[in-house]
Design a protein that fits this description.
By secondary structure, the protein is α+β, with helices and mostly antiparallel strands. Helix content is 33%, strand content 32%. It has four helices and seven strands, in the order βααββββββαα.
Length: 160
């Protein structure tokens, strides 16, 4: 899968999610995080497979698709700055959709277990991270709601 490079705590601190979080608090997470490059059409995760990472899309686009009635249905298109891999934060983490690069893409991938450990730290920064994550999740839910409302007017969104 593409190329990978280690990520520093300072690079994680540059992501909006971690803005203001002390480098010392990010060091453990950074030690297990990587920057991953994908080529056009390369698959990051397959629907139904076990997953263990959260990804921050630094550059490019990803298509999220699911199989329905023997065809692929486009669920969402992710852009630079989007977070994906939410399913890795739940019990029995499996991918709910297939994520595939649309053109070249660069992501920072971090273990969900490391992010959960940081969130469970009980500090003021842990609380800030939780609020930011819930804010992102709320935005995703609102965008999904908007797509569902469009379905009634446009028909099924489908690709390939």
């Amino acid at each position: 899968m593409g190329t990978t490079v280690n990520v520093s705590a300072a690079e994680l601190a540059g992501l909006p999610l971690f803005e203001g979080v002390a480098l010392a608090d990010l060091a453990t997470l950074a030690a297990d995080s990587i920057r991953r490059s994908l080529v056009d059409g390369e698959t990051l995760v397959e629907a139904g497979e076990p997953i263990s990472e959260i990804h921050w899309l630094e550059k490019g686009q990803l298509a999220l698709r699911v199989r329905h009635d023997q065809r692929w249905v486009l669920v969402s298109t992710l852009h630079t700055g989007d977070l994906l891999g939410w399913s890795a934060l739940r019990q029995d983490p499996t991918a709910l959709s297939t994520a595939r690069a649309i053109g070249p893409a660069v992501l920072i991938s971090m273990p969900a277990s490391g992010l959960l450990a940081l969130l469970a730290g009980g500090s003021a920064q842990s609380e800030l991270l939780l609020k930011r994550l819930f804010g992102i999740a709320t935005q995703h839910l609102d965008e999904s709601r908007g797509q569902l409302l469009q379905l009634g007017r446009e028909g099924v969104i489908s690709a390939g």
